[in-house]
Design brief:
The structure holds two protein chains of two kinds. By secondary structure, chain A is mainly beta. Chain A contains seven helices and 37 strands. Chain B has helices at about 1-25, 65; strands at about 35-40, 50-55, 60, 75-80, 85-90, 95-100, 110, 120-125, 130-135, 145-150, 155-160, 170, 175-180, 185-190, 195-200, 210-215, 215-220, 225-230, 235-240, 250-255, 260-265, 265-270, 285, 295-300, 305-310, 315-320, 325-330, 335-340.
């Protein structure tokens, strides 16, 4: 016990494991395209944000993740470009996956979390630490999995959701599902729009040119050919227009239009111990940036990606082996891009073994083939020991990578064809305590050594060029606490909280990376009874350096935000639920990025009905 | 002979002493907190100004926002110019903004927030303010000079240039505009301030970097040398060659009959009358920055001022040397220190 106590002290994080374990058992009925997320995850911290949690919050992925994970977001003013720092890594070292396919921009390597709407996803999973063997480039700090699923049998349902609130923010969603014999269908449309003209009191002005709208049109089809063969189709169109808010009213007005499409067909066959899965996808990414609206000049880029994956899973007793072959071909066109084409083929082998009832482990390997650069052999090793019904310990080690992006390689007059991939070795150790459904504690410690980090620096002529210059070590700890208590029948209280301590150190200078807080924390306290939900959310982001020299006078100060929500269910009236959300209830003035003031108190009314 | 010499000598001495006593009636009183020192403009991010007192006892950062709380100079502070009434005009290039302050107290006097589109440099001549604007960086066709009334800041008809504009300066009667920016292009436009029209074009060497006026001549540093321009004929009279190994030298300044210019992290000097420029440095400083090396450079009152922008994401620094290349003073400044101005 003393030993465990010491690990407790040093080490850190993770919870919500039980949510995922129950899902594994339902795999046959709930169809999840990214099955590896549930089957090959031994040793790593992972948790799931559920459908009901997604419905309770606004559609902004940044807002949701900030309040329910320890990931830090650097948001250039509310609703503006939002990039994550996951375990102290940079914006392009968090992979975002849509039904198992990486959707970080091929141009920048990152996802802008304010262009992705949460509304039409069935659940959102967060995987901590490296995942390059399965998910490829960019899965270094962690990965965010946006999943849609569809069951073998579904009931006809219509769902309406509408929310209106401060700063003329309107969110609306309609979702429909129905079964036609062996064909199952889900359709959904969601839109989020806002004038975003919040008051900035200490400068005696309003946020200007911050208006945006984002839309997401989604479809999932499932066609059961036989008991052994299932065809599925997943589709997402995300499009929007966002103006970029000004620091001063004399700044040039700019905006950004985006249109991203994702389409995937999947054929799954299951015979006894073997499962075969073929996935073919076509993804497009297009944006136009208007650098000065008074001139109407713009630049745009367009990327098309063909994506193919074949997976063969073989289960034998307590062993599973999965071979994944992946091929991608991407081409980009744009005002600033020259001859941007890339082919990557990769082969991964995953092996998992439940050695005893209490001990399981997995080993994975991946090798990519690509002519443009040296391709490192990637691996991971994970293991979990269940000491008893309550305690478990897990360990994980992996090598992960991030490929240079199209901008890094092909940007006109600046791209650097000699870049090599960023690589990261990491280890993670965690301890987990679970007492029935009442208490769930998870502590995790990790260490991450990242080399050949790509950084854009100005050369002698003032032209910014990418170089493999930086070496960074990130390490820290995470803690998650979950409490669940039934006060009486139909009356529960739930507390979920996260804390993370993060060091992200540039090896050359010994300085903390900019916009990586040492401390982040959040807590959600929810009381529910038969008709009412009452929730209190607290979010803390520690101060961050804005300069690479860590000048203590140039920090963005820490802030504490508190949100409140109240919901009342009306089961007899179309299964409705009426909610009031109040964000930043204390009307705190704060900045998320230097010189980027954020909104004060914001109120929203929401109506959700389904029949 | 001896007597005459003696009389002349004594007479000269008398003039000298009387002059010096006129110049020096009592210790000079500062006209504000930021008098008797050097202003360093820091580009930003958001621009800022650092003050270094002449006796080096004070280095104050962010003096504009110190004096004017909740005010900012806008993005990419580019340049400061002055008028005859002690006003300083600070160009925030990324915010299309000129902030006007008292040069000694740094109290805000006003601002020019219209008629600007990527402003670069400015100059005051009489009661007019002239500011070069590059407008869209994609083309030079839309480049222009904005004109404002110095008292009311009201804009008047801009001068459409239709070619690259960058640095602007005046000899008191004409305006001279450098038609080359960021190391590309050549030529100088001469503008008549009475008609606000282009009166002449002076051709220079390619890769024009900087222009300076000294006495009745203008000197234009370009890729292969310094063109000497006679301002009354507006013609290039000669070119002083730049050795190949320092081709692409930048930051021309003139002090006490000598050129000073930089290449990489070194400073060089040659006489105005030289036929070939020296390639022997008088000083070299340590820089880890590629583009931020010699980000600001000025020779003033017997001292060489240089600045380094490091990685543009941390505090830059300033070093001050004497003319022999001995370090006199060094300090950190803000992000991207790009110019020195003397109070």
């Amino acid at each position: 016990m003393r030993r465990i106590g010491i690990i407790f002290l040093f080490v850190l994080s993770s919870a919500n494991h039980w949510a995922q374990e129950t899902l594994v058992q339902k795999l046959d009925t709930i169809y999840l395209s990214d099955q590896n997320l549930k089957t090959f995850n031994i040793g790593q911290k992972q948790f799931q944000l559920s459908d009901s949690l997604i419905r309770q919050n606004n559609f902004a992925l940044t807002d949701l993740l900030q309040r329910h994970t320890p990931i830090y977001f650097r948001q250039n003013g509310y609703g503006m470009v939002s990039s994550p720092s996951f375990r102290g890594t940079t914006a392009s070292q968090t992979a975002v996956l849509w039904n198992g396919i990486g959707i970080n921009s091929s141009l920048t390597g990152q996802s802008d979390f304010n262009t992705l709407l949460t509304a039409n996803f069935t659940n959102i999973d967060v995987k901590f630490g490296g995942g390059s063997v399965i998910y490829g480039t960019g899965a270094i700090g962690g990965s965010i999995h946006l999943n849609q699923n569809i069951g073998k049998n579904i009931e006809e349902q219509h769902q309406f959701q509408v929310a209106y609130g401060s700063f003329s923010t309107l969110e609306s969603r309609y979702a429909f599902q129905k079964q036609f014999n062996v064909l199952k269908l889900k359709l959904a449309f969601a839109r989020r729009q806002s004038e975003n003209d919040y008051k900035i009191s200490d400068q005696n002005r309003q946020n200007e040119n911050g208006q945006f709208h984002m839309n997401s049109l989604d479809a999932v089809l499932r066609y059961d050919l036989s008991d052994h063969n299932v065809l599925s189709y997943f589709s997402n169109f995300t499009f929007g227009e966002r103006h970029f808010s000004l620091i001063r009213s004399t700044d040039p007005r700019t905006k950004y239009d985006n249109l991203d499409t994702r389409n995937m067909i999947e054929w799954r066959s299951t015979f006894n111990r073997i499962q075969s899965k073929l996935k073919v996808a076509y993804l497009t990414e297009k944006f136009t940036y208007f650098d000065n609206l008074s001139r109407d000049t713009s630049s745009s880029s367009n990327v098309e990606t063909q994506w193919l994956q074949y997976e063969l899973l073989y289960s034998l007793y307590r062993m599973k082996i999965n071979a994944i072959f992946n091929y991608q071909n991407a081409q980009a066109e744009g005002n600033q891009l020259e001859n941007a084409v890339r082919d990557i083929a990769g082969l991964s082998v995953l092996f998992q073994h439940q050695f005893t009832e209490k001990w399981s482990y997995e080993v994975t390997l991946r090798q990519d083939l690509n002519d443009d650069f040296e391709n490192p052999l990637l691996f991971s090793f994970g293991s979990k020991w269940s000491l008893d019904r309550q305690w478990s310990i897990r360990a994980h080690a992996s090598k992960n990578y991030r490929l240079p992006t199209f901008n890094d390689l092909f940007w006109a007059n600046a791209g650097n064809p000699n870049l090599t991939p960023e690589t990261a070795y990491q280890t993670e150790l965690g301890i987990h305590y679970k007492w029935d459904k009442f208490l769930d504690i998870s502590l995790t410690g990790y260490y991450n050594d990242i080399t050949n980090m790509i950084r854009w620096l100005p050369n002698e002529l003032g032209i910014w060029q990418p170089q493999n210059t930086q070496e960074v070590e990130t390490y820290g700890g995470e803690a998650t606490l979950q409490l669940n208590y039934d006060l009486a029948e139909h009356q529960t209280v739930e507390l979920i909280s996260n804390y993370a301590y993060t060091i992200s150190e540039n090896q050359e200078t010994g300085n903390q990376l900019i916009y990586v807080p040492f401390h982040t924390a959040n807590a959600n306290l929810i009381y529910s009874n038969k008709h009412w939900d009452l929730g209190l959310t607290w979010l803390f982001n520690g101060s961050v350096f804005t300069q690479t020299d860590n000048n203590p006078n140039r920090k963005v100060e820490h802030y504490n935000l508190t949100d409140l929500h109240v919901s009342r269910r009306f089961p007899k009236f179309f299964n409705s639920k009426l909610s009031l959300r109040a964000m930043n209830i204390f009307d705190l003035a704060y900045e998320a990025v230097d010189n980027r003031p954020m909104p004060g108190r914001a109120l929203t009314f929401q109506l959700l009905t389904q029949f | 002979m001896k007597t005459i010499f003696k009389v002349n000598f004594l007479f000269a001495l008398l003039i000298l002493t009387s002059c010096s006593s006129d110049d020096d009636p009592e210790p000079q009183l500062p006209q504000g907190d930021y008098d008797l020192g050097t202003l360093v403009l820091n580009e930003g991010g958001i621009g800022s100004v650092t003050f270094i007192s002449n006796d080096y006892t004070r280095v104050d950062q962010q003096i504009y926002s110190t004096v004017n709380p909740n005010e900012e100079l806008g993005a990419f502070a580019q340049y400061i110019f002055f008028d005859q009434d002690d006003n300083a005009y600070i160009i925030g290039g990324g915010s299309n903004l000129i902030t006007v302050v008292n040069r000694y107290t740094f109290e805000k006097v006003g601002e020019i927030a219209t008629g600007l589109d990527n402003p670069r440099y400015g100059v005051v001549l009489g009661d007019n303010i002239y500011v070069t604007n590059q407008a869209s960086f994609m083309t030079t066709d839309d480049d222009y000079i904005a004109v404002f009334n110095r008292i009311t800041f009201a804009p008047s008809t801009p001068i459409i240039m239709g070619k690259a504009v960058e640095f602007i300066l005046s000899d008191g009667s004409k305006l001279y505009v450098q038609n080359a920016a960021f190391g590309f292009g050549s030529g100088i436009s001469v503008i008549n301030p009475n008609s606000n029209t282009i009166e002449a074009e002076i051709a220079t060497g390619e890769g024009l970097q900087s222009i300076k006026i000294n006495a009745s001549s203008m000197y234009a540093l370009h890729g292969t040398g310094i063109d000497v321009i006679n301002l009354s004929t507006q013609e290039v009279t000669s070119t002083i060659a730049l050795p190949n190994d320092i081709s692409g030298a930048t930051n021309l300044d003139i002090f006490n009959g000598r050129f000073y210019y930089t290449f990489g992290s070194s400073v060089y000097s040659s006489e105005l009358a030289a036929t070939t420029l020296s390639n022997t440095p008088i000083l070299t400083y340590n820089s880890n920055s590629a583009f931020g090396t010699m980000y600001g450079f000025e020779v003033h009152d017997g001292l060489i001022y240089l600045s380094d922008a490091t990685d543009f994401a941390s505090d830059g620094f300033v070093e001050i040397y004497d003319l022999n290349g001995n370090l006199v003073f060094e300090t950190t400044a803000g992000i991207g220190p790009n110019g020195f101005y003397f109070n």
